Fold each of these.
Amino acid sequence: MVTGRDESRGRAVVESLGDGGDFLAIDLNEPGSPERLVDWTVERWGRLDLLVNNAGIHALGTVADISEDDYDRIMDVNLRAAVLLSSAAVRAMRSGGGGVIVNVSSEAGIVAVPRQVVYNVSKAGLIMLTKSIAVDHAKDGIRAVTVCPGTTRTPLVEEAIAGAPNPAEHERVLVSSRPANRLGRPEEIASAIVYVASEEASYLSGTEIVVDGGYTAA
């Protein structure tokens, strides 16, 4: 089940899956939308085995710069939506005998990336959400794992590079800040999520998989 606010991109993902996919356009900030998404999924497929919390937005600013509106907007999408979706998913998974929740955090949840304080805090919150779910719901057969990507060529990052005063220099700085000397590819993050969700990772819970080209090790 694919969800998001961009219906055209969502439908394209479903088409790429061939048979067996569906899309529901949802704004996770709308009251009741997490429960609606989980209920729709269970009604459509009969059960829920995996939730990937991957919605995220970004804004720059130190703690001295940030506005209340920026704080609320980032925390609502990056953390609040994941908490509420996880709540609804755990109830469905518990009745179905178990499942896996993958929270897509960031290297910024582990180290303080300069001038993005609220984003950092929201991503750190996802790491603790994972740990809490893993501890509280292991007995329900539910695992939770965080995947922490480094800077990856997602539409969000490509937009940030293009919008910089000097895009080429901005990209050079992003690349040179990590030992791998390149940005990540979305497929690399997806591969980590697929592994986390698989039976091969059935003993993995409450921890992080960091896919950042060595950034947090430097």
Amino acid sequence: MIPIGRYPTAVQRVEGLPSARNELWIKRDDRTHEVYGGNKVRKLEWLLGDARDRGVRRLVTVGAAGSHHVLATAYFGRQEGLEVEAVLVPQPRTPHALEVLRASLALGLRPFPVQSWAAVPFALARRVASGSHLITLGGSSVLGSMGYVAAARELAEQVRRGELPEPEVCVVALGSGGTAGGLAAGFQAEGMKTRVVGVCVSAPPWALRLSALRLGRASARRAGARAPMAAMRDRLRMDARFLGRGYGHATPEGVAATRLAREHAGIDLDPTYTAKAFAAALWQIRARRAEHVLYWHTLSSAPMGPLLAQAPREEELDERVRALLLLSDEM
């Protein structure tokens, strides 16, 4: 493992919500690093450490154009002296996605654009055959998920110190499954009552849940905890009600959640992941499903300005790369 992040990340109670009995707390993983934070940092500590031990010189990963995982891999891989490539697929065009894509290219990312997820395996196989070391989608392998087993242990220690009450529910965005699965495994290993609600951000939902359950069970075993599938199914649930039209598409609930998060918690959300997850956390509070709800904030809050200082302008992007950011009516 390579130590990258700054821990423990803070916990924060959200004030001013219209519920006297139920509490919403935030785990501030947006602050895992001063240059580029978010949930990818914890995973990459393990993944880049493994790459270093193997003597790797070049990485390849995969994600949508504007992927935070791709940007984080480009930044931290470069810090370790590694070349970074990525197979990129289309996603809806937003100013945020464009910024993330431009920042990734500014860090020296070598892009390999494809037009669909169906083309990804062949493109990845070619890069691996050329000598690149694969970092899985979202960094969500058993090894990457161990970063969130450690994060769950970190939260357990904060509960023991009295920094927050033990939450009955932890709400987090569910994409490739490594964060939700690792948290579920860590809570299982710590003997906590906390259940994880993974908020689905892409389709098909059943595949996301299956991936998270598989990673959760395998990570729990690696952490030395008993994790029969029945127990992991109870520990890790999925909420697909906030997906909307699909990956990258904003929703009315997400827009409302973004406004409330800024007003009451001072945090910014993105439409693809965190707005949908925070909307689900608010639903948990309003429905009074739990007395203490924890929202795990996974979006970096570090300013993008430094990463964009040397970034190419949109009109300077290669046409094949620029075409990956699709207008909403093209999706």
